[in-house]
């Protein structure tokens, strides 16, 4: 089975090579048969990689230590779920997952791209093939997951304990779905450059791919952030760590791409810019992969790095980024420019959005790469951390957030900003009220906290105002308004929901940064402590034996007003003997939107223990807001206008979704 | 065999994926029809939005005009575009592509694959016949059994000496302790425990080991292993004369065919050889030299290998848990007596880093380093 | 305004914005980036008073002293020189004696290093890359070969 997987992976490489060259040549020569090779080859290549991934998974689940990769990252005593997720909890396996997702997306384009112009489809698949070939070569040459070990050891070295967690089992696949989803946008962009023209269908294809990739990437980043929050045991949700920045940069530019693709789809404008953004976004995804995989940057939570792999990925990076940008420089002038618009219009607002987002991306990029550049040029080791990003990223984001509610309300082509401002008066008044209430009635609220709360309220109410106005609530009879509301295009809902989610996330961040309470104290069993009006009793430590770890479990009771325990919170210090590694399992009690977070410190001899307790108000909104943003993206994705008008199926599709006309 | 069949089927499938589209007749469509379709869709969309009241009728009219302009432009464009479809099918490219699939894949696999290595799921390895299993597999099976039944004293008792023999001294200590706890103390177990403790300490008879040997002697005063190691403890403390006496007493009481005779005789000879020159060069000999010689001379050369293995284990352990002053002392000494001065020096550096140079443990290290002739740079 | 003038003013606005963002970025890099030193490097380094740096090395054994509340003092060493570090806050999970650590902050008036963040790597070797590089150069630490 293992060798079958290995062989299937090699076959996938060869198929991917065919996929890179034959359709491209066919498109060049105008040969329909050669172009037609692209589809079946892509789908078969995906099947091969899936088989290969399944073989590796089986090796993991069966603890086949004759596979070096399994021996290094698994242990027979591990719970089954982590044997399973261990497949991608390491460098080799995660790269295999990366190409699996890549080929899956390629197969989707091949399977559902029948309504694309044949040359565009052939070129897109060929570009996907290049990426696939590069990464399959990378896997087979530098990080082959199917390398064998003879004689096979009888026991493995265990998966890194901090990865033995369900959060981290879900995080990489989501993140990769996002990263790799942008590869399709990239392929479409490069294909358009190869052809020297952008079809009208282009934006309609790129927009949903961008949306889907963006939804996954949002989820991946939120998941990673929540994982770091509870698993690393120091209660932070974002560290401006290079690894985090690596996923954040494609998110920022992907968000920009999402918005510019709207302009392109609706107004045929910003074509060249959208193309460039598509290239840049995937380039940043590749850069992220490089930064995480090569270990060139110090990160608080990087693992498994190898410089020789770094060089290989750097080559891939240079080839793809350099190549695509060179192609862009060569061909961009031959593309026709799109429609014109007034600076104050929906298009103008989206351009402003792009300007801010790409500039923010650039500052994050500079902050992340600056240490590398300085070390390479001067040999000095420097680091760029939170203070830098607070000073640069913050000032860029705040004005952007302030103008977000204006965008969806402005008319296409030529808008009236004063009329929009008038319509937003209610939201503005409410936001102002939120500022005052926060500042005057909440203890310890700073001006910053009050303004932050106000900005969050502005975003949330602005999004709701957008929906209300589009439905005509207040202007027309309630039943008409309701019908109009229900009849609104899903993309309008999507936009409003996503913007609302952004406001919620902001509210969570402001809540934690401004109102967090923290206490560190030594607690004896039976001792009670107070934090932000909650009484917490320490009930003592219990040693517990897990399948592949031992832990000291700290039991805490949350006391109600009468001093009776109302809830139990468990926080523990685990020790994984195979890797000789301790981990902290934070005890978290969610109370509505806020959380009580308990982390155990060192144990004193007499049964007392150092306890760190945080009260984190509204913290769940940070990730809850991200989920809402994802939902917004998903709802937009369902909008029929984003589905490509298929010539063959057009009539039936229209019949199904024909709107209720008044 | 099955693997080759599967590989052949996969290759066939992959080749067909390339071949079949080449044999079929594919019809290319003109690109303009796609664009037109999109624009037509957009027109429909504008109509719907206008009907729903989302956009004003005047705006809808403007949008329709704009889309109409695009359609006109499209017509002009497609009229300009020349038909570039060539009827010359580049057959060679197709043939090359089809051939590449089997040739390249089998070629690469021949270079990097390991077709002769079968899959070895752990459960299958553990359930095969004991006679076919390697020692490691048998141990793993016993371990799996003991994880499920940790109170099986006999299991621990059987496993302990096996651990000791293959150099897993730390596991041997645990196994002996468990056996003693569950089944009670016997001479063999206590002496084995002592040997295991000494083994995990890099061949040095620590105070813990001595306690175990003494417990063994309490049960059976003539036990040769315990007596041998207690004598070794004397030698390691520098009491060469006491050690030699103890070994001589042991040698006298040993039966002729005892497995301990050879080792004991050798130890006596070594101790005498060491005692003689030490009188001449007052205080010069490093006592630790005795340790290693005594340990090494105990039996055949594989014991040296075992000691090196133990030292490596200790080194690894200290990497994981550097707060172990006694461990560091042992490691530095062991490397020096094994003749690996550079490693000893490196270990010293690490020990200082872990324990602090000015701490009490640090001073002990400095003292030891001085006596071993290592550099103590300030 | 003519259409051309309008377009020019928009472009000028965008350029001004980008210029301001660039200036801000480089100002922030100058102000907020911190250099990495090992204790022994400090002899040759010229530091402005209050300049932010990153200090890396091994946590010296037996040097951790816990003070009031969240205050902690420990020494960072590279086996040549040792620097006392004062830190108020939460030490990371894998902060241990004898293990690699990176602290960030600046020197206080009494030549003690006041750290505002402490990082320990989440990996079985507990060795941040900069620290490992420097220690390898000094021959103190070797990578565990597997």
UniProtKB/TrEMBL annotation, chain A:
It is a multi-pass membrane protein. The chain crosses the membrane at residues 6-25, 37-61, 95-112, 124-141, 174-194, 206-228, 248-265, 272-291, 311-330, 351-373, 393-412, 424-442, 448-469, 490-515, 618-638. It comes from the Bacteria. Keywords: Cell inner membrane, Cell membrane, Cytochrome c-type biogenesis, Lyase, Membrane, Transmembrane, Transmembrane helix. Residues 314-640 form the Cytochrome c-type biogenesis protein CcmF C-terminal domain. Residues 88-294 form the Cytochrome c assembly protein domain. Its main location: membrane. GO terms for molecular function: lyase activity. It is found in: Cell inner membrane. NCBIfam families: nrfE, PRK10369.1. PANTHER family: CYTOCHROME C ASSEMBLY PROTEIN-RELATED (PTHR43653), CYTOCHROME C-TYPE BIOGENESIS PROTEIN CCMF (PTHR43653:SF1). Required for the biogenesis of c-type cytochromes. Possible subunit of a heme lyase. Belongs to the CcmF/CycK/Ccl1/NrfE/CcsA family. This is Heme lyase CcmF/NrfE family subunit.
From TrEMBL, chain B:
Pfam families: TPR_CcmH_CycH. The keyword Zinc does not apply. The keyword Ribonucleoprotein does not apply. SUPFAM superfamilies: TPR-like. Residues 267-276 have a biased composition (Low complexity). InterPro entries: C-type_cytochrome_biogenesis (IPR051263), Cyt_c_biogenesis_CcmI (IPR017560), TPR-like_helical_dom_sf (IPR011990), TPR_CcmH_CycH (IPR056413). Keywords: Cytochrome c-type biogenesis, Repeat, TPR repeat. Gene3D superfamilies: Tetratricopeptide repeat domain. It is found in: Cell envelope. Residues 267-299 are annotated as: Disordered. Residues 143-259 form the Cytochrome c-type biogenesis protein H TPR domain. Its main location: other. PANTHER family: CYTOCHROME C-TYPE BIOGENESIS PROTEIN CCMH. This is C-type cytochrome biogenesis protein CcmI. It comes from Aminobacter carboxidus. The lineage of its organism: Bacteria, Pseudomonadati, Pseudomonadota, Alphaproteobacteria, Hyphomicrobiales.
Automatic annotation (TrEMBL), chain C:
GO terms for cellular component: plasma membrane. Residues 1-7 are cytoplasmic. Heme binds at residues 122, 126. SUPFAM superfamilies: Heme chaperone CcmE (SSF82093). The keyword Membrane applies. It is a single-pass type II membrane protein. InterPro entries: CcmE, CcmE-like_sf, NA-bd_OB-fold. GO terms for biological process: cytochrome complex assembly; protein-heme linkage. Pfam families: CcmE. One of its GO terms (molecular function) is heme binding. It is found in: Cell inner membrane; Cell membrane. Transmembrane segments: none annotated. Its main location: membrane. Residues 29-146 are extracellular. Keywords: Cell membrane, Cytochrome c-type biogenesis, Heme, Iron, Membrane, Metal-binding, Signal-anchor, Transmembrane, Transmembrane helix. Heme chaperone required for the biogenesis of c-type cytochromes. Transiently binds heme delivered by CcmC and transfers the heme to apo-cytochromes in a process facilitated by CcmF and CcmH. Belongs to the CcmE/CycJ family. This is Cytochrome c-type biogenesis protein CcmE. It comes from Aminobacter carboxidus. The gene is ccmE.
């Amino acid at each position: 089975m293992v060798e079958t997987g290995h062989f299937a992976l090699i076959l996938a490489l060869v198929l991917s090579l065919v996929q890179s060259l034959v359709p491209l040549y066919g498109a060049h020569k105008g040969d329909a048969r050669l172009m037609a090779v692209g589809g079946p080859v892509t789908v078969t290549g995906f099947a091969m990689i899936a088989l290969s991934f399944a073989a590796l998974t089986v090796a993991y689940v069966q603890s086949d230590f004759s596979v070096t990769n399994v021996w290094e990252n698994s242990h027979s005593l591990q719970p089954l779920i982590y044997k399973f997720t261990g497949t991608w909890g390491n460098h080799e396996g995660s790269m295999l997952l990366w190409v699996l997702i890549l080929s899956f997306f390629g197969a989707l384009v091949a399977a559902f791209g029948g309504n694309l112009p044949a040359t565009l489809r052939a070129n897109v698949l060929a570009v996907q093939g290049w990426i696939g070939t590069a990464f399959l070569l990378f896997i087979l040459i530098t990080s082959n997951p199917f390398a064998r070990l003879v004689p096979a050891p009888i026991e493995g070295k265990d998966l890194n304990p901090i990865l033995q967690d369900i959060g981290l089992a879900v995080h990489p696949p989501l993140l990769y779905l996002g990263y790799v989803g942008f590869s399709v946008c990239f392929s479409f962009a490069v294909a358009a450059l190869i052809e020297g023209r952008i079809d009208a269908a282009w934006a309609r294809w790129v927009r949903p791919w961008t949306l889907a990739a963006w939804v996954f990437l949002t989820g991946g980043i939120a998941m990673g952030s929540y994982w770091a929050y509870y698993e690393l045991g120091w209660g932070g949700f974002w560290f401006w760590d290079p690894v985090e920045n690596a996923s954040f940069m494609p998110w920022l530019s992907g968000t920009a791409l999402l918005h510019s693709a709207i302009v392109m789809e609706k107004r045929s404008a910003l074509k060249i810019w959208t193309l460039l953004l598509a290239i840049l976004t995937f380039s940043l995804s590749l850069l992220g992969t490089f930064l995480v995989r090569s270990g060139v940057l110090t990160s608080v939570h990087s693992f498994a790095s190898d410089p020789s792999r770094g060089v290989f990925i750097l080559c891939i990076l240079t080839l793809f980024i350099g190549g695509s940008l060179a192609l862009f420089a060569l061909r961009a002038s031959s593309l026709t420019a799109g429609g014109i618009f007034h600076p104050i219009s929906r298009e103008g607002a989206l351009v402003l959005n792009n300007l801010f987002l790409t500039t923010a991306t650039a500052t994050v990029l500079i902050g992340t790469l600056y240490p590398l550049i300085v070390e390479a040029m001067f040999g000095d080791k420097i680091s760029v951390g939170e203070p830098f990003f607070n000073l640069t990223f913050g000032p860029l984001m705040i004005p952007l957030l302030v103008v977000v509610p204006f965008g969806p309300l402005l008319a296409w082509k030529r808008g009236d900003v004063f009329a929009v401002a008038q319509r937003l008066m209610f939201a503005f008044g409410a936001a102002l009220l939120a500022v005052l209430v926060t500042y005057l009635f909440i203890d310890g609220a700073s001006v910053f906290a009050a303004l932050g709360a106000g900005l969050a309220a502005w975003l949330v109410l602005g999004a709701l105002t957008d929906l209300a106005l589009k439905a005509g609530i207040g202007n027309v009879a309630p039943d008409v308004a309701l019908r109009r509301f229900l009849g609104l295009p899903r993309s309008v809902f999507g936009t409003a929901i996503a913007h609302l989610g952004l406001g919620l996330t902001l509210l969570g961040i402001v809540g934690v940064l401004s109102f967090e309470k923290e206490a560190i104290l030594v607690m004896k069993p039976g001792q009670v402590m107070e934090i932000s009006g909650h009484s917490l009793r320490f009930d003592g430590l219990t040693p517990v034996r897990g399948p592949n770890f031992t832990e000291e479990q700290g039991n805490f009771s949350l006391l109600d007003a009468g001093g009776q325990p109302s809830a139990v919170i468990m926080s523990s210090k685990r020790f994984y003997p195979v890797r000789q590694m301790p981990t902290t399992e934070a005890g978290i009690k969610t109370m509505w939107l806020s959380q009580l977070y308990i982390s155990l410190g060192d144990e004193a001899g007499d049964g007392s223990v150092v306890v760190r307790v945080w009260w984190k108000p509204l913290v769940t909104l940070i990730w809850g807001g991200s989920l809402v943003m994802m939902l917004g993206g998903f709802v937009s994705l369902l909008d029929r206008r984003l589905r490509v008008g298929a010539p063959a199926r057009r009539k039936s599709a229209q019949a199904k979704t024909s709107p209720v006309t008044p | 065999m099955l693997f080759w069949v599967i590989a052949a089927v996969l290759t066939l499938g992959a080749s067909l994926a390339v071949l079949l589209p080449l044999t079929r007749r594919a019809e290319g469509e003109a690109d303009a029809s796609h664009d037109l379709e999109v624009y037509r869709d957009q027109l429909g969309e504008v109509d719907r939005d206008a009907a729903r009241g989302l956009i004003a009728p005047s705006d809808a009219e403007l949008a329709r005009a704009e889309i109409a302009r695009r359609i006109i432009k499209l017509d002009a464009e497609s009229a300009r575009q020349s038909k570039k479809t060539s009827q010359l099918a580049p057959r060679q490219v197709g043939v090359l592509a089809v051939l590449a699939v089997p040739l390249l894949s089998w070629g690469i696999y021949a270079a990097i694959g390991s077709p002769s290595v079968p899959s070895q799921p752990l459960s299958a390895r553990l359930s095969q016949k004991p006679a076919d299993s390697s020692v490691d597999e048998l141990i793993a099976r016993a371990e799996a059994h003991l994880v499920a039944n940790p109170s099986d004293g006999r299991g621990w008792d059987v496993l302990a000496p096996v651990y000791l023999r293959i150099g897993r001294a730390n596991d041997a200590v645990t196994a002996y302790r468990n056996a003693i706890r569950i089944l009670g103390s016997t001479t063999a177990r206590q002496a084995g425990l002592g040997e295991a403790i000494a083994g995990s300490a890099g061949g040095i008879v620590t105070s813990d080991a001595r306690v175990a040997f003494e417990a063994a002697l309490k049960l059976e005063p003539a036990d040769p292993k315990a007596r041998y190691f207690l004598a070794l403890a004397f030698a390691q403390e520098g009491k060469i004369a006491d050690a030699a006496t103890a070994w001589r007493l042991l040698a006298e009481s040993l039966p002729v065919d005892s497995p301990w005779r050879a080792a004991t005789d050798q130890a006596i000879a070594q101790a005498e050889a060491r005692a003689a020159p030490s009188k001449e060069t007052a205080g010069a000999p490093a006592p630790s030299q005795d340790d290693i010689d005594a340990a090494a001379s105990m039996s055949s050369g594989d014991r040296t290998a075992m000691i090196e293995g133990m030292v490596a284990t200790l080194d690894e352990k200290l990497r994981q848990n550097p707060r172990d002053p006694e461990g560091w002392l042992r490691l530095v000494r062991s490397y020096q007596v094994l003749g690996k001065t550079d490693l000893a020096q490196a270990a010293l550096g690490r020990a200082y880093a872990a324990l602090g140079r000015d701490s009490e443990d640090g001073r002990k290290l400095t003292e030891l380093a001085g006596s071993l002739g290592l550099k103590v740079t300030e | 305004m003519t259409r051309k003038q309008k377009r020019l003013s928009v472009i000028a606005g965008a350029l001004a914005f980008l210029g301001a963002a660039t200036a801000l970025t480089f100002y922030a890099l100058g102000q907020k980036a911190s250099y990495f030193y090992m204790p022994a490097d400090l002899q040759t380094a010229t530091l402005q008073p209050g300049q932010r740096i990153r200090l890396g090395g091994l946590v010296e054994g037996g040097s951790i002293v816990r003070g009031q509340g969240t205050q902690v003092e420990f020494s960072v060493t590279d086996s040549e020189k040792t620097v006392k570090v004062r830190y108020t806050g939460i030490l990371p999970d894998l902060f241990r004696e004898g293990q690699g650590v990176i602290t960030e902050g600046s020197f206080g008036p009494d030549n003690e290093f006041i750290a505002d963040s402490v990082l320990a790597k989440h990996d079985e070797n507990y060795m941040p890359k900069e620290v490992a590089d420097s220690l390898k150069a000094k021959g103190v630490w070797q990578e565990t070969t597997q």
